[in-house]
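go over this chain:
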Amino acid sequence: MDILAQVLEGKEFDAKTLSALYDYDIFTLGEAANQIRASKYDKKVFFNMNRHINPTNICTDVCKFCAFSASRKNPNPYEMTIDEIISQTLASYRRGAKEVHIVSAHSPNYSYEWYLSCFSEVKKAVPNIHLKAMTAAEVHYLSKKFAKSYQKVLEDMVLAGVDSMPGGGAEIFDEEVRRRICKGKVDSTRWLEIHSYWHSIGKMSNATMLFGHIENREHRIDHMLRLARTQCDSQIVESKHGGFNAFIPLLYQRENNFLNIKQFPSGQEILKTISIARIVLKNIPHIKAYWATLGMNLALVAQEFGADDMDGTIENESIQSAGGSKSKNGASFDEIVAQIKNAGFIAVERDSLYNELRVCE
């Protein structure tokens, strides 16, 4: 039975059956994924001008894969003020950033009002910037800590000026794996519930998957299928204008954390995962090869294997770089454009919702 051919024809299978896709050689998978990608976007590779800001690394959770949160592996706690966040946002906006991406640790010190004030003050200071903020894990944490429903937290975020949600906190949806790597964090059902409600009120979000640690191939595909089902459910909400913009497979960074992984996925395993994502996730428009976890070179190769997006300039990257990624200082606009063009693609600057802003000559 040719599983790949049947999947391409639209037949649906469970995760166990679909894990056989990994048995295909890399070029067969890549060709199939690239055909899907090219039919949607031709040779375009998308990126944006964005700034990442992480207000604190003081966290109540102890996720074993995390190198960012303050711990004995990273004994350098910090907290930012709202004024500092506004100052950084303004400086980046003046340099051309069109998005600010605010994701934080689960702080025991910030109040519920602090977050809402932070968002509203950022939007007041820089009204034209797209504010992407609050992972579903953060929403769950605030809901639990301050006894507010998910709906209340999300609606308050909208009122405070949050435009879209990032996809963090998803990790791997399999609950046994979650218990081992991030016990106490939002569970998979609630992660999906939070995004579903966000979509139902007309908002867009991304979805991530952390891979390359203790999960197996079937866990990865199960994760993708749950996202595909959630996207379908979101799309039948009568008032729906929201949904998942992009799927982002995040490669686990192995330094300065407590998982102690010895066997790291090969380049072929990584590219197969990206190709399978493009083949399986028919209803999620974009597949992002996030250069901050993959490195710029592999992220560019991934554009031949189903991906169509690189993320953006970032400017200051704290989470992946704490785990060993070479992404701390971001990348310049000119560097990203040159890298995309040198790889034989068309560099397209986009906004946060994938509207094309310009083709970069």
Remarks:
- The mean pLDDT is 91.
